[in-house]
Design goal:
The model has no long low-confidence stretch (mean pLDDT about 90). About 50% of the residues lie in helices and about 20% in strands. The protein has about 120 residues and is α/β, with parallel strands linked by helices. It contains four helices and three strands; from the N terminus they run E-H-E-H-E-H-H. Helix 1 runs parallel beside helix 2.
């Protein structure tokens, strides 16, 4: 029997997002996501070259209450989610963990908004 190569389920890059990252057309966020993308693609290439199958790459953020829910303005939350989603799509990153929810109000009010934006 031929041994199958070890499969790597995911390579994850962590990013710390701040509310100010969404200023100036989210330029700071774009730089952070692009840096993560470079790191992820480099890791993916190294693992593939070594003979491993990489199934996915993803980004994980600090708790979303720290950067997403800093305003009561629902449009701002929606815009931030759409900006992040667009940047991830531009980098062909299909998985993103928005960090944990430490606030029950965020869980019941914001999580449905997050799910509605997801592709």
């Amino acid at each position: 029997m031929t041994e199958r190569p070890f499969r790597i389920r995911t390579i994850t890059s962590f990013v710390n997002i701040d509310p100010s990252d969404f200023d100036n057309d989210s330029e700071s966020l774009r730089q952070k996501i692009n840096a993560c993308n470079r790191l992820l693609r480099e890791g993916e290439a190294q693992m593939t070259t070594a003979g491993f199958e990489v199934q996915t790459i993803r980004i994980s953020t600090n708790p979303f209450g720290e950067w997403l829910v800093t305003t009561a303005d629902e449009q701002s939350v929606n815009k931030r989610l759409n900006d992040l989603n667009s940047l991830l799509s531009d980098c062909d990153i299909n998985f993103c963990s928005l960090g944990p929810s430490y606030n029950p109000g965020h869980t019941t009010n914001i999580c449905p908004e997050i799910v509605s934006i997801a592709p």
